[in-house]
User: What shape does this take?
Amino acid sequence: MRIRGKNEPYKNPTWLAHQYHRLQKSSTTIANEAGVTQQIVIYFMNKFGIERRSRVSAGRLGMKNPVSRKKISFSKLGKKNPNWKGGVHIKADGYRLVRSLGHPYADRQGYVAEHRLVMERHLGRFLSPGEIVHHINGIPDDNRYANLLLFSGQKEHLRHHHLLSPGKLIPMRKAKG
Assistant: This one.
């Protein structure tokens, strides 16, 4: 015969609230540790009036665990992601981004503007962040080398636009590179 409360800590409102709120354990974790189902833990939480977290905050709480975060992030990287499009992404302004892991100026997801990669390949070096690659015909996804000009900075790039139309600046797309 089991002594009530001794082997059933989930029936103790103080213990249950402490596990859930103070230690921030999930109802599933508490149930596994107590050797019962999650439904039993939830039943007693409701019975004792222990306020439960929303699904959104519970999900965020799970993401605080570095092991969980790492598993999720690595399980859906690159070709394993159902939305994978071959490492090419087209931004809303029309510029093509190409996945280039290890590139010193890649964004957090590892993407670099394709026109910058084309110019770097031609020059045989990485471009500095201040260098501007200009599309001669103004079409942001026409990344042929013959359609690209390299400027040392924004000042030189603006001067080029001013020379094309003296007294009036030609509208430029707002984008890096």
Summary: The chain has a mean pLDDT of 82. DSSP finds seven helices and five strands in the chain.
